[in-house]
Design brief:
Blueprint lengths: L2 E7 L3 E7 L5 H5 L7 E4 L2 E6 L2 E8 L2 E7 L3 H7 L6 H9 L4 H9 L10 H11 L4 H15 L2 E4 L2 E4 L4 H5 L3 H6 L6 H12 L11 H9 L6 H10 L11 H10 L7 H12 L3 H14 L3
Antiparallel strand pairs: 1-2, 2-6, 3-4, 4-5, 5-6, 7-8
Helix pairs in contact: 4-14, 5-9, 5-11, 10-11
């Protein structure tokens, strides 16, 4: 994506401005791939690890305001070097009507490059859980364990490292509202702090998902979400309840096993499966019957 300009704000801030045609901030954030963000002024405060930014759309552009020195981080985080026009074009040429419609509506969606540890913990917390509760739990972990970082003259909770979370005991996670997920988060934190993720980025998507599924409590859907949203594996397809619904209603599918449904879509859409999933997830969830 072409950067229109990078400007310095108030001496301590930088502003990244790009075309908004293929970067809709709200659609990107509201597509189920990230949880630590909140409405702010014209857009959203977005928190990632020990950093924050303010992102919004204005006058046909997408704008990201961040601390001086964080521009490169958020440039990568929002995947601003990727050509999303090519993904939309591929969807248009797919011959799949619902995908064509979905890409036309959601062409501003981008796949984020998220912190791996934060994404693993976040999606373990997310399973069989509601969005407000997921956010509340992640905010609680950050407040209790993560320290603070500065942004725009304010201080915000940082997401804790796996090592910090691993030092807590199960009772802490139970008290934090994780329910049966308490042992899963603790186990994952211990595995990550012991170097379990070393080399994951170099693995094939199949082997990466296999390693993720070795984490306690991680199944195929959560592994696919982590692979897509933390490791940018566009050849995986998370099959959540919306995608199962779409498979049955729009593809006439009869398979009941979500893992097999995910494999069907991954086979159908190949190297673009992940971004196509986001287009269709956004479209199906927001379409008025």
């Amino acid at each position: 994506m072409r950067v229109v300009s990078t400007a310095r704000i108030f001496l301590t801030m930088e502003k990244i401005i790009v075309s908004g045609e293929y970067f809709n901030v709200a659609d990107t954030l509201n597509c189920g791939q990230v949880f630590r963000y909140e409405p702010h002024k014209k857009g959203f405060l977005v928190h990632s690890g020990e950093k924050s930014c303010y992102a919004y759309n204005e006058n046909g552009c997408a704008v990201v305001e961040c601390e001086t020195g964080d521009a490169e981080y958020f440039h990568r985080y929002f995947d601003l070097d990727a050509d999303y026009a090519a993904y939309v074009k591929a969807a248009e040429g797919s011959g799949v009507k619902i995908l064509q419609n979905a890409a036309a509506v959601g062409k501003g969606i981008r796949i984020l490059n998220q912190n791996a540890e934060e994404t693993v913990i976040s999606f373990i917390v997310s399973q069989n859980n509601r969005i407000p509760r997921i956010r509340a739990i992640l905010n609680r972990l950050s407040e209790d364990c993560g320290g603070k970082h500065a942004f725009g003259g304010e201080r915000y909770p940082s997401f804790p490292s796996a090592e910090t979370l691993a030092a807590r005991d199960k009772s802490y996670f139970s008290a934090a509202g994780l329910g049966y997920r308490d042992e899963y988060v603790l186990s994952a934190a211990k595995a990550l702090s012991s170097g379990a993720a070393a080399g994951w980025a170099k693995l094939s998507s199949v082997d990466l998902k296999s390693c993720l599924c070795n984490l306690k409590g991680v199944g195929d859907k959560v592994a696919a979400c982590i692979a897509l949203f933390a490791f940018h594996r566009f050849d995986v397809f998370p099959a959540d309840t919306w995608m199962v619904k779409l498979y049955k209603e729009d593809f006439g599918g009869t398979e009941k096993d979500a893992k097999k449904i995910a494999a069907y879509f991954a086979g159908l859409f190949g190297k673009n499966a992940g971004i196509f999933q986001q287009y269709m997830f956004h479209y199906k969830r927001n379409k008025k019957e």
